[in-house]
Amino acid sequence: HVNFEDSNRPRTPKASAYFYSMFDLPVPSKLPNLPASEVPSTAKVVWQKFSSQTDFDRDTFFYGTFPKDFSWGVSSSAYQIEGGWDADGKGPSIWDNFTHIPGNIKNNDTGDIACDSYNKMEEDIYLLRALGVKNYCFSLSWSRIFPSGRNNSINSHGVDYYNRLIDGLVANNIMPIVTLYHWDLPQALQDIGGWENSTLIDLFDSFADFCFQTFGDRVKFWITLNEPQVIAWVGYGLGTFPPNINDPGSAPYRVAHILLKAHARVYHTYDDKYRASQGGVITLCPNIEWVEPKTPSDPRDIEAADRHLQFLVGWFTHPIFKNGDYPEVMKWQVGNRSELQNLPSSRLPVFTAEEREYIRGTADVFCFNTYTSKIHRAVAWGLRRLLNWIKEEYENPPIYIIENGVGIKTTSDVDDNTRIFYYKTYIDEALKAYSLDNVNLRGYNAWSLMDDFEWLNGYDPRFGLHQVDFDNPNRPRTPKRSAVYYAEIIRNNGIPMPKEDEFLYGEFPKNFWWTDKSKCCVTPQRLTGLSIWDQFSHTPLKISNGDNGDVACDSYHKIEEDVEMLKSLKVSSYRFSISWSRVLPDGTTRYVNEMGLNYYERLIDALLAANIIPQVTLYHWDLPQALQNVGGWENDTIVQRFKEYAELLFQRLGDKVKFWITVNEPYNVAYAAPYVVAHNLIKAHAEAWHLYNDTYRAKQGGLISITINSDWAEPRNPHNQEDISAARRYLEVQGHVVTALPAFEGFMLFSVFYCRLPEFTESEKQRIKGTYDYFGLNHYTTVLTYNLNYPAVTDRSWLNSGSFWLKVTPFGFRKLLRWIKEEYDNPPIYVTENGVSERGASDFNDTWRIHYYRSYINEALKAIVLDAVDLRGYTAWTLMDNFEWAVGFDEKFGFYHVNFTDPDLPRRPKASARYYTQIINCNGFPDAAAGLHPCLELESEGKRYSRNCAFLV
């Protein structure tokens, strides 16, 4: 306030000054006079920067927060939520009239009532308060304020409505962001030609002037036009939106020309008459979809992508943020085609020098709406690249994302995980752009506050954070899970790393076993019998690319080389499986293949000579075909056959082998015919365990147990009891009910789902009970479950791998280990497999695999140190790339690359091999803050060298 009666003109701040200061809006300044953009423009550096980005770098989730003054909000528009289409003197808009024509809108929906926000203002403000937003972007209905579109028809009821809305927002410390025009032109103005009539420049300015004068003491953030490309192209080019003019060749350019002039006029009105006293900012808001070149390394594709953005975005932003004129590529291309059409002038109108200067710089900030990328789906990483493009193209202006969200076609989506995953990944990409790329991002608004009228699609796609029941005349609002999630992001001002995910420095117990594992990559037939996998892999179309394991890694002839690899890794043990059919060609003890047994004896001797403990698996899926011919695991005689096979190995190898696994992943063995097969697998395991315990343990002193595989199961909605139950059920199906519970507790849990399980007799239960020395666990990933028997979806923020089923989810490893501890009274646990795959050409700098092992092994350390889990050992899968069952050699899990195109099958270490060696050498993760740990001084080719702690930190 200025006291004009005092000659000193003293100043006193009003309450609105304090309110405005909270938002730290950028101080408006004249934009620099930037040169016209060529194609490709200097912003091509964005594609160059990200073209070499690996999927791992692109998709890795980033934790962090935005600056304290970051503006979080939600958005809506008048026609989509207000209703009251003819209430209290409101005039009709082009959308009112358009929706009243049957067939124009899906299901003949209209916005006549919509969300009824005209009558539910207080409830909507309550929703905004509950979200904790700092701003709310909404639009003014031109025809609600000026029913005829002109200032000679001011509707006091409409003015009062917006005054009460703005006052309510300010009273709750929510900054109003007001859009003057969001597509709903007064029908009276369309009747004189709409945006094709240059008279609208004056009429729009008159409307804006009234709004500045009436609301500007409280509104400090103005948007002139929402998505002007849609107004020009969809309304006047395609003609699918009102006013339904189908003239794609010329009308959009004429309309855009008038829209730009109208925007500039309104900007100057605010700048000249109101800025000094009101101190706000004003801009326009285009919509932008990121465009990715088909081949980012091809300059022609980069040029095509940049040209697309210049036509889509630069059409309106280039004149304002650059030089007052259209992009050169638009002028050339439209002009050239106009000439080819023998037109007297270009279809793209020309600005005079005076108009160019008048338009240039008419924006204080850069606002835009974005939903997807031009890759035919929601692609979160496109947002980071788009923000970088704006930074480079327009010299890093203050940027506000005004609309971002996803529509789901459903009648109800309160439990909207898909929307949560969308916001999680898109906001994370915005965070990367701000934190990693120094993009001047000031705010983010979700679209939308609530389900609303979505134009031609009516009420079918739902974008809202709150569900609206459109069948109920009261239009009740219900917060969705995404509303709770978004409120949490606002409260945290971003996505800080959860405490439980913070990296833990420390060491594993001194006697911890570090292990590597492989399947025995051996198959020379000689006297060896066929296994079911030999038979299967030779059946056409069964294995990817027609691969088979006939030679595989040829470990049969490369014992010395493989043991040297293990020595270089510094592992304390090595897990491998024995081929039943190599030792017993027909699966029975009628004939023993001594050459096969000799191979394993030589391998074990070589391991022991290198101080590496052999961990031996009796059965890893390769049943002798001769036994399969008589029913395989469905024939209960196999229990005795397995016991005889086990006894032979205990007799011949037991003096040297002190760690036995009976069956690897029985769930996967039993999957095809689970109930009978699982029944026999459990009994076979129990018989082998008792045989060892009763006859060989006292002399040989080893351990024997079974190894199960289990993903961690996370409820899709952690607040939904049905999803929680589904997660529990999934864990049970994976192995804990079918295989582990009988061994650990001696009973079966039954439910309708398990009604087909054969029942154990009382004597069988007693025979099975307690047949374990440790809990063997293979673990790779986590799934999300809901009220079905199988997992449904995965969190899209989880990193992918070379296997469709394997998402990188380290947190699940610790949770599973803790669950086993609590479920089975903290048994000794040995992790017998854990690893990650890749596809395509091998990258020896396999940073994603390093990330996987670093994260998962650290979760194992947390389980020991923080949760007191009795974890005794860890086994990485796998020593080298090998035959991965039905996918053949396509998926590579190895620390060592094997060149399968070279007859010698040479092995070559990847970066992950060295990293795993570091972890073993350090027995964990030394804290880099304490300086270089002696364990990081490794020997390489006879020379000493010191490694920095980059990988370990």
UniProtKB/TrEMBL annotation:
The keyword Metal-binding does not apply. It comes from the Eukaryota. The active site is at 403 (nucleophile), 833 (nucleophile). The keyword Glycoprotein applies. Gene3D superfamilies: Glycosidases. This is beta-glucosidase. It comes from Amazona collaria. Belongs to the glycosyl hydrolase 1 family. The lineage of its organism: Eukaryota, Metazoa, Chordata, Craniata, Vertebrata. SUPFAM superfamilies: (Trans)glycosidases. Its EC number is 3.2.1.21. One of its GO terms (biological process) is carbohydrate metabolic process. It holds the Pfam family Glyco_hydro_1. InterPro entries: GH (IPR017853), GH_1_N_CS (IPR033132), Glyco_hydro_1 (IPR001360), Glyco_hydro_1_AS (IPR018120). Keywords: Glycoprotein, Glycosidase, Hydrolase.
